[in-house]
User: Which sequence fits this backbone?
C-alpha cells in the first residue's frame, strides 16, 4: 500500500491546522480536569458529561436568541456559566462531604453522576442529534500561506493559547491560585491558618467545570451534538492530563498538542487505523516519562 501518495504539502499543512484546532478543545477540557484532579484529588469521570451538557446548552441558547452573531456569542458566554452553576450545586450538595473518602469511592460516585447527567440530557433534549450553525462571520475560509482553512478553526487555534495564559496567570499570580496550590500539598496546614479550604475547593471545582462547559460550547459548531459524546472526550482528557503532568497547565497544552496532531496526521497517513495513533504516542511517552512530559506542579 502506497501511503506516501496521500501525503502532499497541502494536505499535511491542512491536517496540521485541523490538529491544532482540535488541540484547543482537548486542552480546554483537559486543563479543567487537571485542576480538579490536582487540587481536589477527585478523578471526576463526570467531567465529560459537563462537556456534553455545555454543548447541548450551547444549542439551546443559540436557538433561543435566534442564531446569528448575537446568538452564537451569547451561547458561548452563557453555556459555560450554566455548567459552572450546575457544578456548584453538585459540589456544595454532594462533593464537599466526600473529599476525605477513598479514591475508588470518589471514582464510583462520579461515574454515578455521569449516569444521572446522561438521563437528564435524554429527558431534556431527547435522543436526536443537534447541530449549531456558525454565524456568517465564521463561515467560509481564510487563505493561510496559500492554503484554504476554515475561519472558525482559526479562531479555535487563537483561543487555545489565550486560555492557557489565563490559567497560568490564575494558578501562579492570583491569591486563590496560590492558596489552591498550597491546599493541594497540605490541606490541614492551609485550614490551620484560618483559610476556608472548602470554599477554595468549591472555586477550583467550578473553574474546572466551567472549562468543560466552554469546551463543549466551542466544539458544538464543529460536530453533531449527541448523547455519548462525553465518553470519548473523558478518556482523551485523562490521558492528556497524565501524559502532560498532573496539575501542569503547560503540560496539558503539550499533551493536547501531541494528541491532536497525531490524531489528525494519522487520518492522512493511515486512515483506517488513525484512531490508534494518539494512544500509541501516549504509551510511548509514558514509557519514557512515567510521571508526565513536564513536572507535576501539585
Assistant:
Amino acid at each position: 500500500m502506497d501511503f506516501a501518495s496521500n501525503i502532499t504539502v497541502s494536505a499535511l499543512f491542512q491536517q496540521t491546522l485541523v490538529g491544532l484546532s482540535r488541540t484547543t478543545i482537548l486542552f480546554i477540557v483537559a486543563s479543567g480536569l487537571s485542576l480538579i484532579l490536582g487540587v481536589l484529588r477527585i478523578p471526576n469521570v463526570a467531567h465529560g458529561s459537563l462537556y456534553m451538557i455545555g454543548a447541548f446548552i450551547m444549542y439551546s441558547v443559540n436557538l433561543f436568541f435566534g442564531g446569528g452573531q448575537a446568538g452564537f456569542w451569547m451561547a458561548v458566554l452563557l453555556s459555560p456559566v450554566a455548567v459552572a452553576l450546575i457544578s456548584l450545586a453538585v459540589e456544595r450538595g454532594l462533593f464537599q462531604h466526600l473529599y476525605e473518602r477513598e479514591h475508588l469511592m470518589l471514582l464510583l460516585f462520579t461515574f454515578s453522576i455521569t449516569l444521572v447527567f446522561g438521563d437528564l440530557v435524554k429527558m431534556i433534549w431527547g435522543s436526536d442529534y443537534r447541530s449549531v450553525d456558525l454565524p456568517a462571520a465564521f463561515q467560509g475560509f481564510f487563505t493561510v500561506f496559500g492554503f484554504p482553512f476554515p475561519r472558525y478553526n482559526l479562531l479555535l487555534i487563537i483561543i487555545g493559547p489565550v486560555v492557557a495564559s489565563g490559567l497560568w496567570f490564575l494558578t501562579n499570580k492570583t491569591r486563590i491560585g496560590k492558596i489552591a496550590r498550597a491546599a493541594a500539598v497540605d490541606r490541614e496546614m492551609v485550614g490551620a491558618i484560618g483559610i476556608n479550604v472548602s470554599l477554595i475547593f468549591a472555586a477550583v471545582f467550578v473553574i474546572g467545570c466551567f472549562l468543560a462547559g466552554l469546551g463543549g460550547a466551542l466544539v458544538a459548531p464543529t460536530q453533531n451534538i449527541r448523547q455519548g459524546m462525553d465518553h470519548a472526550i473523558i478518556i482523551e482528557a485523562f490521558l492528556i492530563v497524565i501524559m502532560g503532568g498532573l496539575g501542569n497547565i503547560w503540560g496539558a497544552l503539550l499533551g493536547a498538542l501531541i494528541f491532536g496532531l497525531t490524531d489528525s496526521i494519522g487520518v492522512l497517513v493511515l486512515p483506517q487505523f488513525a484512531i490508534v495513533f494518539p494512544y500509541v504516542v501516549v504509551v510511548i511517552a509514558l514509557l519514557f516519562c512515567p510521571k508526565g512530559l513536564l513536572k507535576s506542579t501539585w
